[in-house]
Amino acid sequence: MGCIKAKSREIPLKNVYPELLMDKKFVQAPETRQYSYAIYNANKQLIYSTGSYNYDRKLPLAELDDSTLFETGVLLYNYKHVGNRDKNKRYVVVSSKSYPFKSIISNFSFLYLILVLYVICIIAIYALKYGLRKLRINYTTKIQILLNVAFFYHLSSL
């Protein structure tokens, strides 16, 4: 019969620890995982960085002299960067992905969907309160209601 040899190797870790093995006070909150940050010394040398943004390659050191970085923030490579300087002339830069325009449009579509559902609920409450016979709906309103029902029926079947 054959035998199996197992060798133990040391695997270098890059600041990644399983959260179950860590003490609860060191666990990063889920809301802050979308942010990257870097610390620069007074000579503008990168001391520490964490997150998905590569500060060595993508953040020009000239941005640390720009006052807009510290006031309103700077948009570079689809990331929004905001900085702060302490009394020891160290710089801290916090970065997050910028909010894409298509997300704003999708938020508008969702709000419109909520509005249409609200109007349908108001019409249904009116119909139940005053009876369906007293509800006078003209031809264009009937078409609009049927189109909305057809749209929501297919949407709900997904």
Order of neighbouring strands in the sheet with most strands: 2-1-5-4-3
* Structural shape: elongated
C-alpha-based Rg, rounded: 28 Å
Low-confidence stretches: none
> Largest beta sheet, briefly?
5 strands, antiparallel
Number of helices: 4
Number of strands: 5
Distance between the termini: 56 Å
The helicity comes to 25-40%
Write up what this structure looks like.
The protein starts with 34 loop residues before the first strand and ends with a helix. The protein has a 5-stranded antiparallel beta sheet. It has helices at residues 55-58, 67-71, 101-130, 139-156; strands spanning 35-40, 46-50, 74-76, 79-85, 91-97. A hairpin with a 5-residue loop joins strand 1 and strand 2 (46-50). The protein has 158 residues and is α+β, with helices and mostly antiparallel strands. The chain is built from 4 helices and 5 strands; from the N terminus they run E-E-H-H-E-E-E-H-H.
Architecture blueprint of SSEs:
Layout: E1 35-40, E2 46-50, H1 55-58, H2 67-71, E3 74-76, E4 79-85, E5 91-97, H3 101-130, H4 139-156
Antiparallel strand pairs: 1-2, 1-5, 3-4, 4-5
Task: Briefly summarize what is shown.
Helices cover 36% and strands 18% of the residues. By secondary structure, it is α+β, with helices and mostly antiparallel strands.
Fill in the keyword field for this structure:
alpha+beta, 4 helices, 5 strands, elongated
